[in-house]
Amino acid sequence: MKVFVLVFALLFIDSPVPTSEKKKSKFEGSWKLLKYTYGTGKDLCEVPEFISYIKNVTKTHFSWCSFNPEDGKVVGVGGGTYHFDEDNYFEKTDFWYPTGSGIPGTETSFKYAFEGKNWTIEGYVKSLKLNPSTGEFTEIDSTYMMEIWQKLE
C-alpha cells in the first residue's frame, strides 16, 4: 500500500502540464503597432493608415511584418529570438528585410510596460554603417525608440 501511495504521489509531482494549460508570458501573442517615436524629443506618432505593423511573439521567437493593408504589399520583415527579465525585454534579430541595415546579429534591450491590452517598449537601437572595403558593419550611433503595441484578439 505504501508503494502504491508513493508511486501515485510521484505521478502527480512529475506529471508534465499539457501545453494548453501552461501559463503564457504576457509577451506571447499577436500585436499591432499603434504609436511610435524614433529619436529624442519627438512626440509619439500614430501609425498612418497606409501601413500596418504586426508583431507575433511565441514562447521563444518574435517576428514582425510591415505592409500596405490596401494592396497587401510587404514593406519590411524581421525577427529572431527574445528573452526577458523583470525590467527588460531583449530582442536578438536574426533576419531583416530590406537587407543592408546590419541589424541581423544585434541584440537590443528595451524597458517594457503592460497597461491593459497595450505593451510599450523603449530603448536605444543601434545605427550601423557598412565598411565597403571590409564588408563589416560598425556601430556609429544609437537612436532612442519607443513603440506602443496593442494585443490582437
In short:
With 153 residues, the chain is mainly beta. The protein has one helix at 2-14, and strands spanning 29-38, 45-46, 52-57, 61-67, 74-84, 88-97, 107-115, 118-131, 136-151.
Describe this structure in words.
It is a single chain. The protein has 153 residues and is mainly β. It contains one helix and nine strands, in the order αβββββββββ. It has a single domain, classed as Lipocalin. The chain has an eight-stranded antiparallel beta barrel with strand order 1-3-4-5-6-7-8-9. The N terminus is likely disordered.
Distance between the termini: 50 Å
Number of contiguous helices: 1
Biggest sheet: strand arrangement: 1-3-4-5-6-7-8-9
Q: What is the strand content?
A: over 45%
Classify the oligomer: single chain
By CATH, the topology is Lipocalin
Number of domains: 1
Notable traits:
Lipocalin-like domain-containing protein; 153 residues; Lipocalin; globular; disordered N terminus; mainly beta; single chain
